[in-house]
Amino acid sequence: MINHILNKNTLSKTDIISLLKANKEDTIKLFKKAYDVKIKTVGNKVYFRGLVEFSNICEKDCLYCGIRKSNTNFEKYNLSDKEIIEAAKFAYKEDYGSLVLQSGELKSEYFTNRITTLLKGIKEISNNELGITISLGEQTEKTYKKWFDAGAHRYLLRIESSNKDLYYKIHPQNKKHNFEERIECLKSLKKVGYQTGTGIMIGLPFQTYEDLANDLLFMKELDIDMCGMGPYIEHEDTPLFKFKDELMPLKERFTLTLKMIAVLRLIMPNINIAAATALQAIDPLGREKAMKIGANIIMPNITPGMYRDDYSLYQNKPCTDEEASDCKNCLEARITIAGSEIGYNEWGDSLHFKNKLL
Ligand code: SAM
Ligand code: SF4
Fold it and tell me: What is the pLDDT, as a whole number, of residue 321?
C-alpha cells in the first residue's frame, strides 16, 4: 500500500493522511523516499540563515505564544541597532551567507522606518553579500515593498493553521488576528516579489490529520517558495496551556513533524524547507534528523546570548545559554555527521522561486 502511494505522481488528501498515519516500517520508507527526492532536486547542501530574534515586544496575543502581549511574566527586550548590526557582521564574518530578522509584531511608521534603515545597514556592512529573510508579521503591502526595496528578499509568515475554525481556536477573535488578512498578506508578499515562506504548528490542540493534510495542500495551492513548520510546544503562561492533557505526546508531535516535512518534500520537491528550532527542543538531534528527511535550511541562533532566555515562545527552547560562536561549532559537526554539506557564503535561494522566474 505505502509503495503504491509513494510511487504516485500526485498525492491526494487521502494519500497524504495515510502517509501521516504510517506505521514505523512505512515511515522509514516515506523518509527514505523524501530524502532521495531532496538529494535529486535541491541536493545535499544545507544553507545557514543566522537568526536574530531582535525583540520580544509584540502587539498581538496569539493564544499559544509565550511572548504574547498579555503575558507579563517575562522581561521585554529590544536590541539596539548597533547590536543588530553586530550580529549581522558576525554572520557575514562567519560566512553564513544569509540572515533572518525576526521579532514580535509591531505596526508603526517608526518600526517600518527602523527596519528599512537596518536592512540598508546590513547590506552596506556586508558589501551587499548577505541575503536577508525577514519575519515581522502582518504589515501593509506598502511596508512589505519598502523593506523589499531596502534589501530583504525572503519573507516568512506562517499561516499557523489553514483551517479557519482552528485558526480562531488558537487566536483571539478580533481584528488584530484575522485569518483572511493573514492570507492576504501572503499574497501581497508574493506580489511584491519576495520568496515567500509559510508554515504551521504541528500537534496543536483540536488539530486533526485532515487539517494537516489540508495545510500541505494549502501550501501547494499557494505555490510557496519556502516552508518553516515545527511542533507546537505548550507554554504555561499562555491560554492554550489548559489543553495540555489533550495533546499528543511530544515524541509523537516530533515524528509527525518529520512526516509533514517528508510529505511536503514529495509534493513540492524544489522548495526550501527549514529544520525548525522547536524540533531541537524535543530531540537534541531534531534538526539533523529533519535534514535526513527533506529539510535543507537551518537557522542557527545568533541573537546575543543574554537575550535568548527572553525570546521564550515555548518552554525548553534550546541553546538559550550559548553564544553564537558555540552554536556554529556545534552545528557544523552535527551537520557533517548527518551527511550534509554546508553551503557557506551562499544565499541558497529557493530553487522553486528561481524556476518560476525562468
Ligand atoms: N511575530 C511574527 C509572527 O507571528 O509571524 C514572527 C515571530 S513568531 C514568534 C514566529 C513563529 O513562532 C510563529 O509563526 C509561531 O508559529 C511560532 N510559535 C509561537 N509560539 C509557539 C509555540 N508555543 N510552539 C511552537 N511554535 C510557536
Ligand atoms: Fe506575537 Fe508572533 Fe507570538 Fe503571535 S506568534 S504573539 S504575532 S510573536
Answer: 64
DSSP string across 14-80: HHHHHHHT--HHHHHHHHHHHHHHHHHHT-SEEEE-EEEEEE---S---TT-TT-TT--SS---B--
Ligand 2 site, residue 159, Cβ cutoff 6 A? no
Q: Is the CB of 299 under 6 A from ligand 1?
A: no
Q: 167 CB under 6 A from ligand 1?
A: no
Beta bridge partners of 101: 52, 134
Pocket flag, ligand 2, residue 197 (CB < 6 Å): no
Distance 48 CA to ligand 2 centre (A): 23
| Position 226, amino acid | M
User: 38-42, 147-151, 154-158, 306-310: which range is least confident on average?
Assistant: 306-310
What burial letters (b/e) apply to 166-189, b meaning 16+ CB within 10 Å?
Answer: bbbbbbeeeeebbbeebbebbebb
Q: pLDDT tens across 50-62, in order?
A: 999 999 999 999 9
Q: Is 135 exposed, middle or buried (0-12, 13-18, 19+ CB in 10 A)?
A: buried
Burial class, 278, CB count within 10 angstroms (exposed 0-12 / middle 13-18 / buried 19+): buried
Question: Which helix (H) or strand (E) covers residue 342, if one does?
Answer: strand 341-342
Centre of ligand 1 to C-alpha 65, Å, is: 6
Pull the grid cell for residue 96: 553564513
86 alpha carbon – ligand 2 mean position (Å)? 25
**Least confident piece of the model among 9-13, 174-178, 273-277, 307-311:** 307-311
Spatial separation of the C-alpha atoms in residues 149 and 134, rounded to whole Å: 13
The predicted structure's pLDDT at residue 322: 65
Residue pointed to by grid coordinates 547590506: 123
Distance in Å, CA 121 to ligand 1 centroid: 26
Distance CA(15)–CA(320), nearest Å, equals: 39
Atom 8 (ligand 2) nearest CA: 104
pTM of the model: 0.96
Say whether pLDDT at 331 is over 60.
yes
Contacts 24+ apart (CB under 8 A), 80-83: 81/114, 81/117, 81/118, 81/121, 83/54, 83/304
